[in-house]
């Protein structure tokens, strides 16, 4: 047989072997999870592994993660669930405040103004308050842009303007977080002594003091409602600051799963924080007569202090009387 005659069977055999190799089923992840028509699906495959990861030659091995199935649940939360939470909390609070104002109106001073004032907050206290409040407003607006900007703002101003605005909002959100955090720490240290709950707070709540009821139960420097705002600022501000820094410096303190959890906590607490601060802003401006003056000029009318913080006014008057008493002159030693 010639060499060409021997070559033909060998060639046919090689092609047949190649076809068998191609047609042979290769082991796969689906075979490891019972690959039947009713059981093999994308969700089941993803549940069998916490991530899809390859190999990389660069030092940062975290870049080898190609897909993290839990990220789909996080994306669903961010794009759907969070918008519902924020919408219900913020719009719901605004609706309640509008209805309350239309039915109750501004809480007026029943005894009128006395014309005499008393110092309520020092210059340093007001500076810390306004620094923290200003940072909070910018952080709230720029943070809401992350959640609601694309569906609400983008169609109104267009892609180019929205991109420019979002870039500056990101810078503001990142850099103003530092003075905001400092402000929260200072607020905690400045006013912790006056915001420890006591028996007067229980009586204040029972008698529906402040803006809800028409009674004026006695209160010290901070009543139960103000103490609630204080702890919301301290705890809520602390949580959004801590989780925000986890997100601002990715992978330094946590992996991708921890960052997803931090973003969930950060966003939920921030939405509830904004809703609570809307109520605080309402009471401090159009909700109660004379309240804004406490943080505006630092002084309040004596009648306002008597109606809303009677026990504190008594303490201040007693202190003033003690300081006004003439002290006995020191006698010379014989």
Automatic annotation (TrEMBL):
Residues 120-297 form the Cytochrome b561 bacterial/Ni-hydrogenase domain. Residues 1-30 form the signal peptide. GO terms for molecular function: formate dehydrogenase (NAD+) activity. SUPFAM superfamilies: Transmembrane di-heme cytochromes. Its main location: membrane. Its EC number is 1.17.1.9. InterPro entries: Cyt_b561_bac/Ni-Hgenase, Di-haem_cyt_TM, FDH_cytochrome_b556_subunit, Formate_DH_gsu. It is a multi-pass membrane protein. Keywords: Cell membrane, Electron transport, Heme, Iron, Membrane, Metal-binding, Oxidoreductase, Signal, Transmembrane, Transmembrane helix, Transport. The chain crosses the membrane at residues 81-102, 123-146, 175-196, 228-252, 264-283. Pfam families: Ni_hydr_CYTB. It comes from the Bacteria. Its cofactor is heme. It is found in: Cell membrane. NCBIfam families: formate-DH-gamm. Belongs to the formate dehydrogenase gamma subunit family. This is Formate dehydrogenase subunit gamma. It comes from Bradyrhizobium barranii.
């Amino acid at each position: 047989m010639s060499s060409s005659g021997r070559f033909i069977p060998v060639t046919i055999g090689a092609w047949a072997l190649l076809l068998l190799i191609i047609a042979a089923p290769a082991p796969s992840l689906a075979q490891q999870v019972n690959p039947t028509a009713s059981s093999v699906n994308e969700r089941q495959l993803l549940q069998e592994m916490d991530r899809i990861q390859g190999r990389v030659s660069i030092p940062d091995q975290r870049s080898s993660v190609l897909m993290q199935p839990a990220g789909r649940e996080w994306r669903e939360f961010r794009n759907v669930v969070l918008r519902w939470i924020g919408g219900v909390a913020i719009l719901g609070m605004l609706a309640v405040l509008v209805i309350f104002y239309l039915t109750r109106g501004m809480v007026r001073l029943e005894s009128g103004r006395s014309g005499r004032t008393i110092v309520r907050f020092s210059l340093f206290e007001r500076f810390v308050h306004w620094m923290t409040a200003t940072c909070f407003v910018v952080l709230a607006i720029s943070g809401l842009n992350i959640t609601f900007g694309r569906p609400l703002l983008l169609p109104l101003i267009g892609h180019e303007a929205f991109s420019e605005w979002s870039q500056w909002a990101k810078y503001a959100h990142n850099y103003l977080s530092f003075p905001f955090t400092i402000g929260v720490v200072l607020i905690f240290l400045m006013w912790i002594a006056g915001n420890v709950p006591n028996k007067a707070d229980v009586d204040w709540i029972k008698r529906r003091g402040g803006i809800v009821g028409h009674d004026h139960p006695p209160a010290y420097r901070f009543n139960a409602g103000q103490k609630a705002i204080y702890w919301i600022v301290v705890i809520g501000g602390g949580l959004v600051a801590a989780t925000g820094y986890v997100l601002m410096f990715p992978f330094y303190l946590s992996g991708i799963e921890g960052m997803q959890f931090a973003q969930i906590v950060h966003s939920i607490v921030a939405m509830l924080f904004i809703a609570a601060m809307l109520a605080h802003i309402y009471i401090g401006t159009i909700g109660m007569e004379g309240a804004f003056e406490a943080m505006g000029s630092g002084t309040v009318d004596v009648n306002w202090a008597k109606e809303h913080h009677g026990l504190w006014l008594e303490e201040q008057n007693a202190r003033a009387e003690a300081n006004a008493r003439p002290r006995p002159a020191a006698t010379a030693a014989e």
